[in-house]
Amino acid sequence: MACELNEVSAVYKYLLDKSSRKYKCPKCNKKRFVVYMDMQENKIISELVGRCDREVNCGYHYSPKLFFKNNNFEYTPLINNSYKPEKKETTFHSISLLKQSLIGNVNNNFINYLKTVFDTEKVENITRLYRIGTATFWNNATIFWQIDSQGKIRSGKMINYSKNGKRSKYVNWVHSYQLKNNLTKEFNLNQCLFGLHLINQSKKAIAIVESEKTACIMSQVFDKYIWLASGSLNNLNENKLHQIKDRKIILYPDLGPKESDNKPYNQWKKKSDYLSRKGYDIGISDLLENKATEEQKSHGYDIADYFLDVPNKTLIKNDITTENINKLLVKNGQLQNLIEVFDLEILSN
């Protein structure tokens, strides 16, 4: 185990819970609510104080400062200098557990969905690159393993998919399952970007999206980038990006309502600008913001949704004739946008 301590936790008293624990949101009633913790007392402030991770569809956020003000409590955001935060070692999953998860992939709905989009070779590339596994012990859910740049397995995120590639809203974690079933006594979670282990394989520019599914799909659609995923809109932070500070980074946030100031693009643009000032070679793509339709925005499309929303998916699965490509370009200006933005090479027979 490696000892890691977030320096911020040694200064600020109230931080969002870093574990995978979620509560019911006071506003939308979905179990997607992350509470604020009192780091000095190691307890939650209140089940009302926190942030819903349905950032666009709900947006509930009740800060500790506002909670203390509303209840006429003294607000002391910094920890006393005499406080010595406990140093917790990061826990890692075993490689044997990961290998075991690969055995049940024949029953994996996500992988079987990918076979309707790509040919067999590309699907095998995805499962090999990202080490996609199956939780045979938990409804055959897809396991997205978070493997760091040293090859250590930080976590396994479990998501159920339907046969058409639609995911369940409920997320579980391998370590949570182990703790609940007394398969392990303790697990100190310290997440990394999904796909981080791939940065050692080439010096390509790095593209970061929100969801693991999107990273997997785009790795085959546009392989001039290394595609990583933050796991959610709010999970993009400097703590996760510091290992790729010396690489060129391009952010591809999901779409959100046009009129919303809190839409994903605006949130990641602020983070991009902040990190640029700190020396990161980072930018953000406005492709979806400028080219997507209002319907696509209302459905919260990501870059993979946008690319797959092409009438003839043989463009992805097979090479086609130049004549057919030209016909598709006439019918679908969206396809032309992608060819231009990504500098795609169209192969013809």
Q: Explain this structure to me?
A:
The strands form three sheets. Strands 1, 2, 3, 4 and 5 form a five-stranded antiparallel β-sheet that branches. Strands 6-7-8-9 form a four-stranded antiparallel β-sheet. A four-stranded parallel β-sheet has the order 11-10-12-13. The longest helix is centred in the last third of the chain and has 14 residues, at 264-277. The N and C termini lie far apart (53 Å). It has four domains: 7-70, no CATH class; 95-180, no CATH class; 202-302, Dna Topoisomerase Vi A Subunit, Chain: A, domain 2, CATH 3.40.1360; 310-349, no CATH class. A hairpin with a 5-residue loop joins strand 7 (141-147) and strand 8. The model is unreliable at 1-10, 311-333 and 343-349 (pLDDT under 50). It has 14 helices and 13 strands. Helix 4 (120-130) packs across helix 6 (212-221) and helix 13 (322-331) crosses helix 14. It has helices spanning 64-70, 95-101, 109-114, 120-130, 174-180, 212-221, 238-241, 264-277, 287-291, 294-298, 303-308, 314-317, 322-331, 333-342; strands spanning 14-16, 33-38, 43-44, 50-52, 61-62, 133-135, 141-147, 153-161, 167-173, 205-209, 225-229, 249-251, 282-284. With 349 residues, it is an alpha+beta fold. Residues 108-255 form the DUF6371 domain. Residues 12-72 form the Zinc beta-ribbon finger putative domain. This is DNA primase.
